[in-house]
Amino acid sequence: MSPAAPTEPQTDPLARLAELPGVPAAVAGVREAVDAVYKHRVMRRRSPEVSSEAALRGARASAALAGADWALEEVRRRSDFGGEPEARTVGAALRTTAEATESLGVWRGSPLRVLARLHLVAAGGPTGGAEGERIGRPRLAGEPVDEPGLDALPPAPGVEEVAARLDALAGLVVAGSSAPALITASVVHGELVALRPFASHNGLVARAAARLVLVGGGLDPKAVAPVEVGHAEQGVESYLAALDGYLAGTRAGVAGWIAHCARAAELGARESVAVCEALQRGAA
Fold first, then answer.
1. pTM of this structure
2. pLDDT at position 284, please?
């Protein structure tokens, strides 16, 4: 089971996380920040433009966390994301962010299917050879994780533990929770990074899945608050340190990770308020 989940049986294990110190205030702060975007007058007429810009900025930020920190205008300008590793990472982030939105209808009923699809899309689709066999499915015994951006974290668990915890995570998603979407998204994000179930692209998949939860859970139904931007703005070191706290499984570590995700969501919402202001001025 997730290190974030309580060990005693209960019907809604995520709900208890809402009571951890500092979490209620973090949840309230996110709600207020996201509401500020939705209340902006630009959202009445131009919400699709705000959503599109949020997706682009979120993908750019997710790629930055994976080691490809490109300027936004470079991402906007480029059409070819093949070739060098950083370009492939940016392309993978763009594809995965877009796929998350398309997967909303499937997620609650079949989260493992969606995760496999997100990995397939991130990796660029089916390919031949041994590498192609690892795409779109959890790694098997003996298969390494090739993800330098997450090397600072403790090693990923073995495949048997991964399988058990993935099933438990899927069960939580299917069962639903009374916990705020922020908490569910934080646990989904943290678990996927902790497990690193795929041979590559786990960070991109985890961040896309967290976005999916925030949208599908009703916190950000129009996907206008790119939480990935907030994670990147807080810095890679801070991101990894917060994840390390989650992996430790202590109350303080889990609460700290949720608070970090909350701050990321607030910063993402603030980014979109700035986008709304720019659209209102005719500058974007």
1. 0.92
2. 53
